[in-house]
Write a structure and sequence with these properties.
This protein is mainly α. The protein is 72% helix and 0% strand. The radius of gyration is 19 Å and the shape is elongated.
Length: 167
């Protein structure tokens, strides 16, 4: 659990650092994200992809193969972190989004906890359901990481581990 929390924290910090650096570069000339500009998520993602490709030392062709697998890992990691830190975005889950099994289990347990008279057996059942959802989410992360690990060089693997993409 400590390793998972460390990974989640490291990933969050890495994302914030990359976002800040990227936005500072984009905003320096009054461009997107800067004074008078608008944040463009597609442009931000492209910049992050370019930076990751450079750090991995991957060719265009190699990165075209790696990127979908990296995205699959990142998606599984986001799902596995759902509900962590009190749940980002409030109790309703993502705005306009479909909730993952993890988010539903967290919300279900919180609803039970909000009621002071919830019986212990109901709390136990909801707690067990959340633990199972977390275990399943961690398994999905491992399953998403396996094909990526099989494709990368040792140096690329080390880079992805340092970024929090691989364990």
């Amino acid at each position: 659990m400590k390793q998972f929390n460390w990974l989640a924290g490291t990933t969050a910090i890495l994302t914030l650092v990359l976002a800040g650096s990227t936005l500072a570069q984009a905003g320096a000339g009054g461009g997107p994200g800067g004074p008078g500009g608008n944040f463009d998520p597609a442009q931000f993602q492209q910049m992050m992809m370019t930076r990751m490709k450079e750090q991995l030392g991957a060719s265009d062709d190699e990165f075209k193969v790696l990127w979908p697998k990296i995205e699959a890992v990142q998606t599984a990691q986001r799902d596995a972190r759902a509900g962590a830190f009190g749940g980002f975005g409030g109790r309703g889950g993502p705005a306009g989004g479909q909730q993952s099994a993890m988010q539903l289990a967290v919300a279900d347990l919180r609803q039970a906890l909000d009621k002071k008279d919830t019986p212990a057996d109901v709390l136990e059942k909801k707690l067990t359901a959340l633990r199972e959802a977390r275990a399943n989410a961690r398994k999905k992360v491992e399953e998403a990481q396996k094909p990526l690990k099989e494709l990368v060089t040792l140096r690329q693997e080390a880079t992805l581990v340092s970024m929090g993409v691989l364990d």
